[in-house]
Known about the structure:
Blueprint: E1 7-10, H1 16-28, E2 31-36, H2 38-42, E3 53-57, H3 63-77, E4 82-85, H4 100-128, E5 131-136, H5 148-168, E6 173-180, H6 186-189, H7 193-202, H8 211-224, E7 232-235
Parallel strand pairs: 1-2, 1-4, 2-3, 4-5, 5-6, 6-7
Bound molecules: nicotinamide-adenine-dinucleotide.
Residues 11-12, 14-18, 36-37, 40, 58-61, 86-90, 109, 136, 138, 180, 182-183, 185-188 line the site of nicotinamide-adenine-dinucleotide (NAD).
Amino acid sequence: MTSSERVCVVTGAGSGIGAAIVDRLAEDGGTVVLTDLPPVIDALSPEGFPPNVHVWPLDVADGRGRTQVVERLISEFGRLDVLVNCAGVNRDARIPKIEDEPLRFTLNVNLIGPISLARQAVPAMVAAGRGTIINIASRAFLGIFGSGAYSMSKGGLVGITRALALELGPLGITVNAIAPGFIETPMARELPQHVLDATMAAIPVRHGGRPDDIAGAVSFMVNDGSYVSGQVLTVCGGRSIGNK
Ligand SMILES: NC(=O)c1ccc[n+]([C@@H]2O[C@H](COP(=O)([O-])OP(=O)(O)OC[C@H]3O[C@@H](n4cnc5c(N)ncnc54)[C@H](O)[C@@H]3O)[C@@H](O)[C@H]2O)c1
């Protein structure tokens, strides 16, 4: 498969990291399907994208929607080579606030959706003899104070990444996770100022990352990382070393 034949789908790609991943993969070549929640897609103007980028609605927490998008990918393009699970939510909570409903919501978006999409993408990848699944996790997989639900979901995503790499490697499919640290996106800007200040002080390179830093890691895995599988690439300016 050449990069011009490649078909990629990216979830949660209407803004932030996912949008940067779409831009980078589209530059690399092939077809890229940008998906996000229906209202986010409605607010985008499709004419603003290059012709190899297709813009489709997908709520990753919606089981029927997931199936429809995978079926549409196969019927319109005949293949699916790269799945990037990027959609994510962060409802921060300390222990008194970790109730069943927000836990289920976080798990549905950050964990069940990505696993279900991976399962449904596998047959097309097996038919092609190769494929790549990249899960955008978070440095929170290590555990972050006051962020139990999010840390749990991202830890689960790392666990399934490693398990699927074992199971799918013999079928020609690589599975990896990228764990961003603090990346300057709308999600990150919701943090209170005192948290932002403490965050910068704890990052060895002393600045936040850009969405393009994560897009570059995705591009590496898609284009040059065919012998990389089951790994968690932490892209965090050194923060995960943990001196603070
Ligand atoms: N920004 C950071 O510092 C940071 C750090 C670590 C990990 N991450 C992860 O990176 C990913 C992208 O985050 P971001 O910072 O670009 O945030 P963002 O808020 O800019 O983008 C998240 C996107 O996901 C979409 N989304 C939310 N729920 C969805 C659903 N049910 N179905 C489909 N799309 C949905 C949103 O509409 C949004 O476009 C997330 O998985 C996040 O957990 C971000």
